[in-house]
Amino acid sequence: MAASSVALVLLAVALGSLLLVWWARRRPRVRSVCIVVLGDVGRSPRMQYHALSLARRGFDVTLLGYRGSRPHDELLSSKRIHILHVSEVSRIPVGPHMFQYGVKVVSQAVYLLYTLLLKTPPGDYILLQNPPGLPSIAVCWAVCCLCGSKLVIDWHNYGYTILGLTHGFSHPLVQLAKWYEKLCGRLSDLNLCVTNAMREDLAKNWNIRAVTVYDKPASFFKNTPLEIQHQLFMKLGYTYPPFRASTEPLDPAFERSAFTELNPRSREVTQLDGRPALLVSSTSWTEDEDFSILLKALERFEQWILDGANLPSLVCVITGKGPLKEHYGQIISQMCLKHIQICTPWLEAEDYPLLLGSADLGVCLHKSSSGFDLPMKVVDMFGCCLPVCAIHFQCLHELVKHEVNGMVFMDSEELADQLKMLFSEFSSPDNRLKQFRKNLTESKQLRWDESWERTVFPLLTHS
């Protein structure tokens, strides 16, 4: 009796699966791509750029991800791009940690399977951002099998290495995530990755062939004209004191920020003599970025100014959202700095490129959990011809060329020395920062759409 019951159950499952495949493949097909991001769509610039490039080439795009930060206006206004927001599945606060994590993964898998099968049109491709790949790789592969689509994985990093920052790399959960990522990663039809180092590691240790598609800046990352800079500084000054003028103009009709001044009669904007230098960093406030390095370097920079060094005062802007923001905010609030002001705003998508295009120097503290990905923030800074000081890790040389387009440092002391060197003779027209900026301007970098046309589009049309 038991055996016949089991046989009936298996038969029902088999018939149900066949009906599901038949139904999925009978659905009307369109020339479309579903981009899956199990994260905040607005904070996933590379996947937004994929969506825009696909839409420009005639694909209908469904961009599936979490609601959060506002995406770029161009993406929101595109008639070919539909953003499908899904809810983030939370852990149940019951039972052991492993049990909570397992229930969350299963719930995510069921929810994602339901969404992809019933709420998105079957198309040519599912383009998946990894990480996170658990459980999305397996789910997307199953949907592709049912619908006759092809699975493309865009490897930004390894999910298990990010998990390892929190739990340690020997933790059973991390080892399970590594095994899953390595096994399911081979199910894809096409793989993209962000560096040659990652491409070589995927081939050698994962038996996965991938194509390197370097991050490139979008067209809106560029130098910001002085008039737009002034408008941005005045706007930010309403909320953030470091952008406000420290002294009133002699003529009360003039409009002044901490950096610029507008003559209302001629409408001419000029930079203030003796203005502070503007240093910018951006972050997700996670464990792979140690901002104590920058804070220690700024304290040393402050001491040099107090000792009489010919250095400008600084406004340091650290943008972003993330779990460690409050932690570092408390540290910053306890710092006693007279010549350095620090603020940590969250900028709208349209204001962030304008800020980078207005800054004097960028600082990057991203230290890859795997050693194989590159920081998108530096790509954006270079698009604005903004020189960068970046902390060293394994494949950083694929992006930052030391003493050509910026500087590479190992610790807070080396960063402090670089800040001192770069900001010495700040008002001179031939200082080191301006030489780096000139090198970036003359390099004539490819933009994302041009690079995508050369690399990704041929792969999609011939796969």
Describe the structure.
The protein has 463 residues and is of the alpha/beta class. The protein folds into two domains: 30-41 and 53-216 and 450-462, Rossmann fold; 278-442, Rossmann fold. The chain is built from 16 helices and 16 strands. It has helices at residues 2-26, 45-56, 73-77, 97-118, 136-147, 159-167, 172-184, 196-205, 226-237, 292-306, 325-333, 351-356, 376-383, 412-423, 432-442, 448-462; strands at residues 32-40, 60-66, 81-86, 125-130, 150-155, 190-193, 211-212, 255-256, 260-262, 269-271, 277-282, 314-319, 340-343, 361-364, 388-391, 406-409. It has a seven-stranded parallel β-sheet with strand order 3-2-1-4-5-6-7, with helices on both faces. A six-stranded parallel β-sheet has the order 13-12-11-14-15-16, with helices on both faces. Strand 8 (255-256) and strand 9 (260-262) form a beta hairpin. Helix 2 (45-56) packs across helix 16 and helix 4 (97-118) packs parallel to helix 5. The longest helix is centred in the first third of the chain and has 25 residues, at 2-26. The model is unreliable at 9-15 and 20-25 (pLDDT under 50).
Q: Biggest sheet: strands side by side, in what order?
A: 3-2-1-4-5-6-7
- Helix count equals 16
Q: Mind telling me which CATH architecture of the largest domain this is? A: 3-Layer(aba) Sandwich
User: How would you state the average pLDDT, rounded?
Assistant: 89
